[in-house]
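Sorry, explain these tokens?

***
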Amino acid sequence: MIQTNIPMARAAFKDQFETAMRENSVSPELYFEKVGLPTGDNYEPDSLLPEKPFWILVNLVANEESIPDFGIRVARLTPWHKVKSLAPIIQESQNLEELLILFSEAASEQSNTSTFFLGKSPPHAYFTSVTETLFEGDRQ
């Protein structure tokens, strides 16, 4: 079967991985090269990179560096609302409802495998997240 939708993510997410590796005394350049991600800082946060190398990277670092929770460390490092490519979109929100709506709309533009929906059931509102699994049985 031919894949018609290539999973992509904003390059801004690369910063999280780089910082997490440096905090764990791991060479980001070495691992970025191993998985085919660009090294260095010459990129625009809004540019797109293939998402699968990020998933391969997190598993590779977890296994080769014996950091079984590396994926969680990366995720906790930078909350979504502080990612350089998303923050400018949502920072002008006038209220919480507008912020949540903007976030839901913009999230799929940050990673085309992640979709957020803002549901409303007065007097409550809630998020629903649907994220495509890129690797079956992925532990990270």
